[in-house]
Every structure is written in C-alpha cells, then in structure tokens.
Automatic annotation (TrEMBL):
UniProt organism field: Stackebrandtia nassauensis (strain DSM 44728 / CIP 108903 / NRRL B-16338 / NBRC 102104 / LLR-40K-21)
InterPro entries assigned to the protein according to its UniProt record, in alphabetical order: ConA-like_dom_sf (IPR013320), Glyco_hydro_32 (IPR001362), Glyco_hydro_32_C (IPR013189), Glyco_hydro_32_N (IPR013148), Glyco_hydro_beta-prop_sf (IPR023296), TAT_signal (IPR006311)
Key words of the record: Glycosidase, Hydrolase, Signal
Protein's UniProt keywords contain Signal: yes
Entry similarity comment: Belongs to the glycosyl hydrolase 32 family.
PANTHER family assigned to the protein according to its UniProt record, in alphabetical order: EXOINULINASE INUD (AFU_ORTHOLOGUE AFUA_5G00480)
GO MF annotation: an example: sucrose alpha-glucosidase activity
Signal listed as a keyword: yes
PROSITE patterns referenced in this protein's UniProt entry, alphabetically: TAT
GO cellular component entries: cytoplasm
Name by which UniProt lists this protein: Glycosyl hydrolase family 32 domain protein
C-alpha cells in the first residue's frame, strides 16, 4: 500500500498553508433558503492571463473534483467541488455549469449549498431517472438525481432540469458502507436491470463497496473489491472490446484495471495500469475525474480536475473532454484517451508542414512564423529513419528563439515527455493541446496521455513554437498547428 495522506488531511493542510481563509474568516454568513441558489460571482471576461480559453474553469472561487457529469435533452451538465467564497479549499458546495457541446460552457448558480443541503457535500455522481424509478418526479421532465456525502450516501434531486435541488428523506443516508467512505458513483446496469453504486471505503484497507438498487432509494450490499492502489473517487464503466464489452475500474489518481462485472462483483483481468500520466494527486497536475452519464452515441467521455491552474479570482479547472476506448496490447486491453471530435469545430487557422527530413538548424526555422497562445498540434514522425536522439517541440519560446518548454520524444528511452511510449510501426504520433498554462499531451492515438500545468510566461513575446531535433535529423511525416478559438462567450 502506498503511504498517502487522506484527502481530508490534504484539504485541511491546504487550507492551513493558505492562511486558514475559512468562511468565517472571510465574513461569509451561513446559507439560508431565501438565498439559494444565487451567488454573485465576480465579473470576468474570462481573459485573465492564466485562464484557459478552451478549458473550463469556474467563474470565480475554488474548484476541485469533477462531480455528476451528465447529459440530458441537449444539455451537458458539469458539477464540481466548489468553494465560491475563496481561492482555497473550504466548506464544499457543488458548482454547476452547462454546455450544448462540451466545449462552450455557461456558469450556473450553485447546485448544492451548505445550510440548504445536509451532510458533507463532497464528491459524488448523478444520473437522470428517465423512468421515474424513484417516484420523485413532479414535473413533465424526469428527475436529475445526484449522490454525495461522506460516511453515508445522501440523495438530492431536481425536477426543474438542475436549476434547484431538493433533499431526499431529510438527508438521511440511503446507504452506509463500513469504515470511512466517500465519492459514490451510481449507474444503470442493463445486465441485471438494476442501479449500481460503487463507493470508496477504507474498511480493511483501500477498496470499493458495490451496492444494487431497483429504485435508487433502497440499496443492498453486494460485494467488496479491495486493492491497495484504489484510493478515492472510483469510476466503473464498460467499454466496447472485440464483440462485447470489458469493464474499467479506476481511481482518482488514474490507476485502473480492466475486467468483468456481472452486476454483483468486479473481477480484474489485467494488472494495474496508468490511464493518465502526470502527478495524480490533490496537489498534482490532475485528479478525480469521472465519466459522463447518458452521453449521446453511447460514448464514454471523461473530464478530470487540473489543480495547478489559478488566477486572481479562481483556482483549478477541468481537462478538455476526452473519449475513452480499449485497445489490445501485449499486456492485454488498455484504455486510450483522445480529445472529443468537437475540438475540430474550434480550429480557425492552420499551419501545415511536411513531409520533410530536417536537421537541427532547419527544424529550428520550420515553425518560426507560428505565433499562438492557444493551439492544437498534431504531428507524426518516422522515428526509425530519424537520426536525432530526441525530437519534438519547444513551447513558450522567446522571439529570439531562447527559452521554451520542451515536449520531446526520446528514442533511446522510448518516452514522450518522460512517459513510456514505444513506437508504433516505427512511427511516433504526438497531439498537444496548448492553452496558456494548460498542457495536455496524447501519444500514438491516445495510448499515452499526460496532463501538466507549466508556468508559461504571460508575455506576448513568448507565444512561439519551435520544432527541435537533437544530434541529427528528424523525419517529419506531417505537422499541423491549429489555432483554437476561445470558447467563452
């Protein structure tokens, strides 16, 4: 078992280090029903120097874990752990934003608020109760039902398309796992025609408890899957594989296994792998992602929290949405991650290069005229015919060619940005999302993905790219640099 602080300990430490700016210290009064759910977020044009222009961030305040991402009737809903009263973790609310396409987001009023909704409003999941299994529907639309709470799961529901949420049964827990528990994930399982609840607990060590319910209200314990690596924010979902499906179970830090799930127990068939490279921690480069409920096309779409991005009125953001799939490898089925196709609609100017074989000097000159702060870079290199030991891109380069942040492939180590990436038929494919201080890297069609938050300069003198080759030539099959439009209205 890897020694880790609990999230509660980390959160408390974060608040202490930040000077203990709790709600009382900020002079914030307790919430009252008459105030719910409005909150006067600070005004912004979303163009602060470090705010991502095509990555979601809260209009104001602190953001952490992704909560209850779901789709209903033309709208994607993104909820998230939220302190609207300060820039550090404090008394948790559920923030809320909506989008028609997963890229253009609109801030909504707070969804769950202390003083209105009981319990610790920590991480959780949600879904649409299309067939009114709960019997809670009171309007002509099915209820949106979300789950939260520590050491006991609480249910909240909305009959007005997530504009307001009511508390079920005065906040009494609908399921209480043994030990310390948090982060419920709930979904419909077609094989048994029942709802399933997967929740992290430390009863006897790290692991998840699995419950079943016919109506989302009455839950029966089915089994426990214990694993030292499995810490916080579990997600369990199926992915197409060959002529059927495999199930993927992952935790907050991106560790996962692939296996089978019969509605009662999960049985792994692979060793533990990394779905996302980077530092998967509360104070790292990513943490606590979830997949969307009910997305059109039966896609499995994931967003994660990026802790390292912040500005004067906001802290934390979300990754760009990705679609997950399974690919066969020598180690069995492995998860791939790739940006959703909607990013293509954000491209407005493209610079193309190749094919070409270039030496270090020619590589330095190839992208000299490209000036961009928000872009998508898609490149393919023939590693086998390249004599350079390292090649790739330098980002955030000064006008005179100095400085820069390197995203390089190391032929000897077979790594991209330090993460393992064997060549594919002698080729290396790189896809980079560069959005001010937000950097997402995808290698060989999503076989590897890396999330980082470099501290790029905010000076317009560094909005330059360079192709880099070290110690020889690099064989460029193609490079496309797409400028990406800002998604804030």
């Amino acid at each position: 078992m890897r020694p880790r602080l609990s999230r509660r300990q980390l959160l408390m430490l974060s608040a202490t280090v930040a000077g203990g700016t709790g709600m009382a210290a900020l002079g914030v009064a307790p919430a009252f029903a008459a105030d719910y759910p409005e909150f006067p977020y600070p005004d912004t044009d979303y163009q602060e120097p470090t705010r991502g222009q095509f990555h979601f961030s809260s209009q104001g305040g602190w953001m952490n874990d992704i909560n209850a991402p779901l789709y209903y009737d033309g709208t994607y809903h993104l909820f998230y752990q939220h302190n609207p009263h300060g820039l550090t973790w404090d008394t948790m609310h559920w923030g809320h934003a909506t989008s028609p396409d997963l890229v253009h987001w609109t801030q909504q009023p707070i969804a769950l608020e202390p003083g209105i909704h009981p319990g610790d409003l920590w991480s959780g999941a949600g879904l649409v109760d299309f067939d009114n299994h709960t019997g809670l529907q009171t309007s002509n639309t099915p209820p949106i039902v979300v789950f939260s709470g520590t050491n006991g799961v609480r249910l909240f529901y909305s009959n007005d398309r997530a504009k307001t949420f009511q508390t079920y049964d005065n906040g009494n827990p609908i399921a209480t796992p043994a030990g310390t528990s948090r982060d419920p994930k709930v979904f419909w399982h077609t094989g048994t025609n029942e709802f399933k609840l997967v929740i992290w607990t430390d009863a006897g060590g790290n692991g998840v408890d699995i419950f079943s319910s016919p109506n989302l209200l009455d839950w029966t314990f089915k089994s426990r899957f214990a694993a030292d690596w499995l810490f916080e924010c579990p997600d369990l979902f199926p992915l197409p594989y060959n002529d059927g499906y495999k199930w993927v179970l992952n935790d907050a830090s991106g560790d996962y296994v692939v296996g089978t799930f019969d509605g009662t127990s999960f049985n792994p068939e692979t060793t533990v792998a990394r779905m996302v490279e980077g530092r998967g921690a509360f104070d790292g480069t990513f943490y606590a992602g979830l997949t969307f409920a009910h997305p059109p096309g039966d896609r499995i779409i994931q967003m994660l929290w990026m802790p390292g991005n912040r500005g004067d009125i906001w802290t934390g953001c979300a990754t760009f949405p990705v679609e997950l799939a399974l690919r066969e490898t020598s180690d069995g089925p492995r998860v791939t991650r790739n940006p959703i196709a909607a990013i293509e609609g954000l491209r407005f100017d493209t610079h193309r290069y190749g094919p070409a074989v270039v030496d270090p000097g020619q590589a330095e000159a190839l992208l000299r005229d490209v000036v961009t702060q928000e872009c998508e870079i898609i490149a393919e290199f023939d590693a086998d015919s390249s004599t350079a030991t390292r090649f790739g891109f330098r980002l955030d380069v000064n006008e005179d060619g100095s400085g820069g942040h390197e995203v390089l492939y190391d032929k000897t180590a077979q790594t991209l940005y330090g993460a393992a990436l064997p060549t594919s038929e002698g080729k290396v494919r790189m896809r980079l999302l560069v959005d001010r201080n937000h950097l997402e890297i995808f290698g060989n069609d999503g076989t590897m993905s890396y999330i980082d938050s470099p501290s790029f300069s905010t000076s317009d003198q560094t909005y330059r790219l360079r192709l880099y080759a070290d110690g020889g030539t690099v064989s460029v099959a193609s490079i496309a640099v797409h400028d990406i439009a800002r998604t804030w209205s």
